[in-house]
Amino acid sequence: MRLALHQLNATVGDIPGNEAKIRDGIRAAREAGAQLVAFPELALTGYPPEDLLLKEHFLRDARAAVDRLAEEVTGIVALVGFPERAEDVFNAMAVLADGELQGIYRKMRLPNYGVFDEVRYFQAGVRPAVIEVDGITVGLSICEDMWVPGPPLTDEALAGAEVVVNISASPYHAGKPAEREQMLAQRARDNLSAVAFCALVGGQDELVFDGTSSVLDHTGAPIARSPMFTEHLLVCDVDAHAARAARLRDTRPRLASREGRPAVECLGVFETGAARAATQRPEGEVVDLLDGDAEVYGAL
Predict the structure, then answer these.
(1) Where do the domains of the chain lie?
(2) Which of 43, 93, 140, 190 could form a disulfide with 39 if both were Cys (CB 3.0 to 4.6 A apart)?
(3) Does the pLDDT value for residue 113 go beyond 90?
(4) Distance CA 43, CA 20 (A)
(5) C-alpha angle 104/105/106, rounded to 5°?
(6) Rounded alpha-carbon distances, angstroms, from residue 123 to 86, 108, 218, 273
(7) Which of 163, 128, 131 is nearest to 148 (CA)?
(8) CA 13 to chain centroid
């Protein structure tokens, strides 16, 4: 599967400006032959939108932008972070394909510590979700969903997810990129799934977002990584079938399934027409992490 992760700098409250960046990213990913493109957590509104989420017109504008973007998504599947207004407000991921909004995944684990205040603004989702893209099952998650072991990732893996996409707005602190990649590698190994991590970059008030979007295979080895502290479209190819083969040799998924299969929602089955022969698939670039003074200087 050819994946694209658009590491972008979203401006809080600037829905039209963020929408334009996402539209450009969809076009660029499609031109690169990607079957799936992901954008960061709350990419349409910027993060954290805080009290803007208390304004009905702001939530309506965000949904209208999702609907406009959906009309342009053909030949690719796009995953876009936005605030969903339904019976409550949810930190959500829109699944766009075939010119329509096909489904919505709602973040299940809401952080409420340190700089995070999501319980004040959002209701938690209750159902893990997957999609199928050109025969490959993809699990969906948003930021904190990945940081905590267990569901939704384990449930999605048991439902067959060979790749798990995580869209994120992960604030920087010194040493965090390396710490975070260790966590992502552990999730990949635990679930025998490739992990695609798409992160926000830039700054908002006292928060800095380093980006460092990355893709790791099912063994936890990095196969592509974006540069830190800059916007970047990462395109790489993932051998999803390797994860499927590994599960035949590992008894953990089989034993876990015997305890009962979790309820996982499938938000759509899509054929993009963008598949490429293996010989046509270039490998992604693994950009080195900054460290020490260089990392802190980049944050500044």
Answers:
(1) 2-299
(2) 43
(3) no
(4) 11
(5) 115
(6) 10, 9, 31, 36
(7) 128
(8) 21
Owner of token pair 């979203």: 10
Higher pLDDT, 104 or 277: 104
Question: What is the tens place of the pLDDT at every residue in 258-273?
Answer: 666 678 999 999 999 8
d(CA 112, CA 299): 24
Counting Cβ atoms within 10 Å, is residue 300 exposed (0-12), middle (13-18) or buried (19+)? exposed
Which residues 6+ apart lie within 8 Å of 143 measured at CB? 41, 107, 111, 166, 167, 168, 169, 170
Active-site amino acid positions = 41, 107, 143
- Residue in the structure block whose two tokens are 């395109």: 235
The CB density around residue 53, as the number of other CB atoms within 10 Å, is 21
152-171: average pLDDT:
96
Percent residues over pLDDT 90 in the chain: 79
Query: Pairing relation of β-strands 129-133 and 265-270?
Result: parallel
Task: For the domain covering 2-299, report its CATH number.
Answer: 3.60.110.10
For residue 150 the two structure tokens come to: 């267990």
Peptide bond into 152 cis (omega under 30): yes
